[in-house]
User: Fold these one by one.
Assistant:
Number 1:
Amino acid sequence: MKVPESIKTVFAAIRRQVTGAPLMSWLFGVLVAVALEYVVGYPLARALGLPKVPALFGLTLMLKQPLLIPSALLYTTIIYVLPVGLIAKFSDVLGNAIAARLLKLPFVVTVMVHLGMLYLVFHLWTGVSDYRLVTLKFMLIAILLTLSLNLINGYMGEFSCSHPGFMALGAYTASMFTIGLFTDNRLLGEAVFHSPLLGYALFPLMLLIGGAVASFGALIIAIPSFKTRGDYLAIISLAFLFIVKSLIENLEFMGGPRGLSGQPDWATLPMVFSITVAGVWIMNNFVTSTMGKGLNAVRDDESAAEAMTVDTRAVKMRCFLFGAFWAGVAGGLYAHVIRYISPADFGLTKLAEILAMVYFGGLNSIWGSIVGAVGISALSEVLRPLQMLKWLCIPLLLILVMIYRPRGLVSFKEFNLRKMLSPRRTKV
C-alpha cells in the first residue's frame, strides 16, 4: 500500500525538527514541562476531571478508566507535548550555539551539564508521586541488569542464564553488610555502628563488595564452562541459578525462604542515578576497548580469533566476571529499593524478564539495552490494569519483534556520546 504524500510530508517535517534541535534543547523542553507539572499539575488534573495527576503520561489511567481518555490526552498535551515541542522548535538555534560553546570546554564539563539537566528532570518528575520515584529507580536498575547481560549474550555471543543468581548474591551480600552493621535486626542482632550518615557514605562500597561476590560466583561457572564450546554455558549457568536459590533458602541466618527485610533506605534517586550512569559509562568503555574488540572477534568466529592470537578463554572469562559484577551491584540496589528480598525474587521469572529486555532492545548495543530495559519496564507498568492480559500482550509484542527484528529494535548501534551532544545541522 502506497503511503499518501501528505503523510510523508508531515513525517519529513517532524524528522527535520527532531534532527535540527540539539539534545540541549530537548532536555530544556522536558525540564520546563516537568517543572510546569510540578507547579500546576494537581490543579490542572482537577480542572480536567482527573482523580489525580497521571502517573505515566496518562497511559495507565486510560486503561483503567477509558472514559477519561480525552481528559488524560488533553492533560498530556498541555503539560508535555506543547511545551517540549515549542521549546525544541524555537530554541534550536540557541541550543546549537550553547552546544557548540560547551564542546569547546573539557568534554567532562559538557557531559556533567547534560547529566545535571537530566537528573533535575528526574527529580522534578518523581517529586509528584512516590509511585513515579519507585518506577524510575527500577528502570535504572533494569538498565544495569540488561546491559550487563548484553555483554555476555550480545557482545560475547554466548547464552547465560545465571544473571538472577548473580543478582541474588549481590543483593544478599550488600544487605548483610547494611543490616548487620547499621541496623538492629532480629536475625543479625544489634547494629555495630549507629551512624546512618556513615552507612550511606559506605553504601557504594557495600555494593562493590556485593558485585565482587557475584564475580566470584561467576568464576565457579566460568572455569568449567569456557574449557568447552557450544551450549554448555547455558546449562551450567542455569544449574548455578538453582543452586544459589536453593542455598539461600536453606541458610536461616539469611532469612531462609521467608526472606530478609529491614534494609536501610539508602537507595535514593541520586545514588541509583549516579551508579547507573557510572555503570553505563564503564561498560561502554569496556566494549569499545581492545577487550571489547576481542569479544566481537570471539563472537564472530572463535577459531579465527584464536588464529589472530586472541586468548579467547581469557577474554570470555573476563567479560563473564565483569557482567556478573554489575549484576551483583544491580542486585544490591534492588534490595535497598524494595527493602525486602526473598529467594523467590531471583528465579526463572526474573530470568525471563531480563532476557526479554536484552532481546527486545537489541544485541551488541548500549542503546539497545537502554531501550529494552526502559521499554519492557514501562510496558509492564502501563499494562498493569489489564492484569492477566498483560502477560499475553508483552509476549505477543516480543514475538513480533523477533519475527521482524530478530536482533532487537536497536542492535549493533554505537553509543557515541560526543556525537550525541554535538550541535545539529538541519537538513533542508
Note: The chain has a mean pLDDT of 87.
Number 2:
Amino acid sequence: MKRIIPIIAILLLFSCQNTAQNPKQEQVKTATPIEVPMENGMAKAYFASGCFWCVEAIYESVNGVSEVINGYSGGHTKNPTYETSNTGRTGHAEAVEVIYDPKIVSFDTLVDVYFASQNPTQVNGQGPDRGSQYRSIIFYQNDAQKQIIKTKKEALAKKLGKTIAAEVYPFLKFWIGEDYHQNYERLHPNQGYIKQVSIPRLRRFQARMPEVLKKNKH
C-alpha cells in the first residue's frame, strides 16, 4: 500500500507470530467491549479490512454513512502510528470508524458491506497488502452485534466452504490516524495505488451491492 523501509519489511516476517504470542494481545481479544454512545442520532461502527484508504472509500459510498475516519484499533499499545503499526508489534490493524445513521443503514447491513468488499478468506491482508496490520477484524460493542457478526461469518463460511479470515474483537479504543491518511482516495485519485488497487476494489463492491449506495455514487 505504501512504501515500507527495509527493517520494517523484515519485522513483518515476524509480526503475526509476535502478535499471537503476546499476552497483552490475548487480553485485548477477551476484554469486555466498550459501547460507544450515539451522538445527534448517529452511531459508530469499527472495521479493519486491509488498507484503510480502500475501506474508507467503500463505506463512504454507502447510503446512511455520513463520515469515515481512518485510524488504528485492535492492539495492545497506546498512541499507535502508521510507522509503529507497520512493525506488527503493536497488535493494531489499520481500521476505520464508520459514523452512520441507524435509521437509514443498520449495523447488520454494514457487516454485509464488510464481507462483500473484501476477499474474506485472505489471512493477514487484502490484495497486495500483507501483514498483521492489514488483517481483517470486525469489532463488536455489545452481545447483539457479536451475534450478528458470528451468524454472518458462519453463513459465509458454509456458503464458500472455506474458513473466513476475519477476527471478531471486542471494541476497546479507536486511535485516529494521521491527517494525511484521511480522505485519501478522494484527494489523490491519480496516485498509483489508488488507481490500481483502491478504486478497482471500490468498483467491485459497488457492483455487488448497488442497492446500498448513495444515489450520487457511480
Note: The chain has one domain: 6-212.
